[in-house]
Amino acid sequence: MLKIDNLHAEVEGKAILKGLNLHIKPGEIHAIMGPNGAGKSTLASIVAGKEDYEVTQGSIELEGNDIGDLSPEERAHEGVFLSFQYPVEIPGVTVTNFIKTAINESRKAKGQEEMPAKDMLKKIREKSELLEIDRKFLSRSLNEGFSGGEKKRNEIFQMAMLEPKLAILDETDSGLDIDALRIVANGVNKLKSKDNAIVVITHYQRLLDYIVPDYVHVLYNGKIVKTGDASLALELEKKGYDWIKETLVS
Amino acid sequence: MDLKDKIISSYVAFEDGLDINTDVHEIRSEAFQNFEKLGFPTKKLEAWKYTSLNSVLNNDYSLFPINRKAVELADVKKYFIHDIDAYKIVFVDGKYSSFLSATTHDGFDVCLMSSALNKPKYKPVIEHYFNKAAKQDNLTSLNTAFAKEGAYIHISRNIEVEKPIQIINFTTGSEQATFLQPRNLIVVEQNAHVQIIERHQSLSEHAVLTNAVTEIFADRHATVDYYKIQNDKTSASLVDNTYIEQKSESTVSVHTFSFGGNITRNNLNFFQKGEHVNSILKGVTILEEKQHVDHHTLVHHIEPNCESHQDYKGIFGERSTGVFNGKVIVEKDAQKTNAYQQNNNILISDRATVNAKPQLEIFADDVKCSHGCTIGQLDNQALFYMQQRGIPKKEAQALLMYAFANTVLESVKIPEVKERITKIIANKLGVNIGFDI
What we know:
Number of helices of chain B: 10
Order of helices and strands of chain B: HHHHEEEHHHEEEEEEEEEEEEEEEEEHHH
Number of domains of chain A: 1
Low-confidence stretches of chain B: none
Number of strands of chain B: 20
Number of helices of chain A: 10
Distance between the termini of chain B: 53 Å
Number of strands of chain A: 12
Mean pLDDT of chain B: 94
Shape of chain B: globular
CATH superfamily of chain A: P-loop containing nucleotide triphosphate hydrolases
Order of helices and strands of chain A: EEEHEEHEEHHHEHEHEHEEHH
Strand content of chain A: 25-35%
Strand order of the largest sheet of chain A: 6-9-10-3-11-12
CATH topology of chain A: Rossmann fold
Mean pLDDT of chain A: 93
Helix content of chain B: 10-25%
Strand order of the largest sheet of chain B: 2-1-5-8-10-12-14-16-18-20
Structural class of chain B: alpha/beta
Oligomer: heterodimer
Largest sheet of chain B: 10 strands, mixed
Largest sheet of chain A: 6 strands, mixed
Low-confidence stretches of chain A: none
């Protein structure tokens, strides 16, 4: 599904990723953990195609195609979805209209007709129920005045609507209380299939109790320095990142 | 001969054809002398610091154009809001076109200024209102001196006019350069309600300069909603002078949509002559190339307990320039005034310019006056967010800009007008999306 090889990237001349490798197969869930400043969010933004970063070496392939030169919207059309750590507020654009525009622009890019209004409404209803989102919420301006939990739930709602092949959840657990966390995780699990893949970026083991990863990677200083199964997250929770740093030094 | 001399020397001939034994004649003569003294405004005047008319005054204008080209309805239909039933007062090269118009005298008057100025039955109204709200500045005086034709709308008390009234001035380009001076008078009596849509439209690439004056009188408890659609060719320039006098408990809103034209100057003046008056001034400006739009607003709070709401949004691309000069005067007696002014601008090009100048003169001590002015750019993080969801950059930009302008659009009360404006915006931004937000 996703194949990242020897990825080096910098922003304003400062190296952030320094030879990162990550291979993900369909049906897998990968968690990426690591201390602040390790490059986790940078990795997410680069895969999504944010232009502020310069990729100096390496490649990113999605289903065997190099997506390194594609614009963010082209990558989205190819099936890449990024749940933002800080979803952007867009006053004046309602949640419903935003998601309608997003879906229809994707369809347009693939040469398909717009989704009939009836189907769109049905899908919106289904997916908002999955995320326990109130109907009134859908006619509000996108993310404007939303609580942290509402913003994250709205991200996963959009993921449900867009049905991506590869979803990267960047600290989707931050700012969530335990009930919201459960709803969000439950939504993600229901969206999971043998054909798609999910990357969960998180600081805390907590989320991984709900979304159980097949692999846990530790990203440190621009590289993945350790990979294990779900138990690695528990070990990190117990020992902290200093343990990794010490292992690296020795 | 420069334009001023040409105008001055044509006045005698103009006067020749008119009845000189009237009050209006007196007003015209005085205005003419005023213009003769003042001439055209220059950048030396504080009020014209950011807008120069020099480039448009150089054309050899025909002052009294002769309409030699027939206008077919099919060619101009698109400039009307044609999907609604409406009264229409249409001029072609300054002359009334009965063929394109739909006027009425059935219970209220939607007709011509020339009739109102000439027929005795309108005399009392003309004497009472004509040139009574207009200022005696350069260009208003010039218009007054030659005032002859335009829209005359008189809504009697308690009448709610169900159909909107469209006032359209077409220019055919039968002359190399055309100078037009429409003069509109709108009197809305107690408790009456009217909606008006106004447009100036050139049908050729020839130069056009329009110096329009509109006076609106809203009596007690009257409601007037006025929409100005400015989407003319880039060979056409407009100075639009609008003067509004409001009596107690009246509400007047003016929405100005400026998307086209070469140089556009909007002088919009509100005078609140009663208590509990509400004045609403809103505008969306979207420009490109070397277009220039200058919004010069004045709200004069004279009596207590009144409100004014100003909201102007501007989006400037390429080498376009925008000016917002919003003046609010709160007189000593105008206690409990609530005056709100907002002007937000987005620059989408490094070479576009905005000059914003809010001016508040407050002489009362118990008032609420706020003003906010911003000049910024589109939020890159918001663009990335939208692109990440599959919305192409151009469409994402358009959606952000539309959302930005939406605070103005949402107060448009005629759905067909709102729809038309939305289409013009989508077209202007080069996208094909519905914006049903």
